[in-house]
């Protein structure tokens, strides 16, 4: 891309809007609120539009290309979700409105609570948390409330496998618990011996991701639940990888006491820069009374509300806000990210139960197809059938000077977003690939072809990888410095 000739767009007197003539008396403003100088850019409307559209085109998105960012489930965001989220009846409500005037919105929330409850196999769900990490925090706070209410005050340890996402120990320490790491075994499962050695009456619980971040279903999940429960702890489920399990496994039935869902991963709502997320939590009977509130409860009404129904068999309901008895409280202002909830609800309704299962089956199939095509080329530390994602290593004997970072950067030249790299931490030079179910075989084949070309380049022209990316608006960045000291002007 060539640099625009017009670098500095601002110029004195340029203006992007016309204000109407004043039709009220000018107000006298207190002098201390006024300033003589306010150096804002002055640009015309067209220049402003071009500036932002040009910036947006430097971005990479699910809507522009394949995005196999492991553990993030960057699936396509169906546009019908946007249509429903923009329906005037949803957009023009206000959180302070009387609940009787927003029954449709409350019904949607209640039904989504029920859908997620059913999908996860739990007793209750709260849609309050605004992200997976906040769902984790809510879950750990519920575990803490459970132990405290029973007077079991000496539990201060949360066990976390070494393959876990960094948000797990963060949620734990925010809740005042100490983290103790549990090793993985040679097959990528939780090491049962190590777990057994750490189970005691100081353990508040274990946070387990299943399938874990290696993309492997823990073969001992039932034993793990029994061990943790056996020492009086509770089992937390990091549900970020639910995209492998929809309609196939209910975590509540495996022994998880609480789990968060990532609506922006599994349920197709936009991710990251695309808008806010949602990380609802599901719990079993033990934790029902601690759920963050308010949640929506459905109440059957008789009498005046049913008069419109001639047929007495059709029950009539009102939906009301309620706060569970011993709730840990609110996780966020008002009622969660409602627009995101509408999108996830739409996704679930448009796929239906059979469609959700098909989505997970296809996600697992797509991942295994890629794994099969790439495993001879890049080392595979845990050689098992994967779930919805898998982890390779970018370190090949044939190309000792090449690191995973070089492969990731070179993929950008081929038009692909890189996979997750250097995570999970237990795999050196990790490349964590998650294709999702929404990609066609054609796209998966093109990605494999790029990975094959890169493998050959790594041996024949390693400088091509070391200097990559070659075709992006900015070349290789010092990523830490770019994040800590961003240059926002020139
Ligand atoms: C994404 C993810 C999280 C955190 O979810 P956010 O919605 O990004 O806060 C936690 N655990 C795992 C395994 C994840 O992939």
Quick overview:
This protein is of the alpha/beta class and 490 residues long.
Strand and helix map with partners:
Layout: H1 45-57, H2 79-85, H3 88-91, H4 103-120, E1 124-126, H5 132-149, E2 157-161, H6 167-174, E3 178-182, H7 192-198, E4 203-209, H8 221-230, E5 234-239, H9 251-254, E6 258-261, E7 281-283, E8 295-301, E9 316-322, H10 338-374, E10 390-393, H11 404-413, E11 420-421, E12 430-433, H12 441-460, H13 462-466, H14 479-484
Parallel strand pairs: 2-3, 2-4, 4-5, 5-6
Antiparallel strand pairs: 1-7, 6-7, 8-9, 10-12, 11-12
Helix pairs in contact: 2-10, 4-10, 5-6, 10-12
Pyridoxal-5'-phosphate (PLP) is lined by residues 71-72, 131-133, 165, 167, 209, 213, 238, 240, 262, 277, 279.
Q: Can you offer a commentary on this structure?
A:
This protein is of the alpha/beta class and 490 residues long. The chain has 2 domains: 79-349, Type I PLP-dependent aspartate aminotransferase-like (Major domain) (Aspartate Aminotransferase, domain 2, 3-Layer(aba) Sandwich); 358-484, Aspartate Aminotransferase, domain 1, CATH 3.90.1150. The chain has 14 helices and 12 strands. The chain has helices at 45-57, 79-85, 88-91, 103-120, 132-149, 167-174, 192-198, 221-230, 251-254, 338-374, 404-413, 441-460, 462-466, 479-484, and strands spanning 124-126, 157-161, 178-182, 203-209, 234-239, 258-261, 281-283, 295-301, 316-322, 390-393, 420-421, 430-433. The strands form 3 sheets. Strands 1-7-6-5-4-2-3 form a 7-stranded mixed β-sheet, with helices on both faces. It has a 3-stranded antiparallel β-sheet with strand order 10-12-11, covered by helices on one side. Strands 8-9 form a two-stranded antiparallel sheet. The longest helix is centred in the C-terminal third of the chain and has 37 residues, at 338-374. The two termini are 18 Å apart. Pyridoxal-5'-phosphate binds at residues 71-72, 131-133, 165, 167, 209, 213, 238, 240, 262, 277, 279.
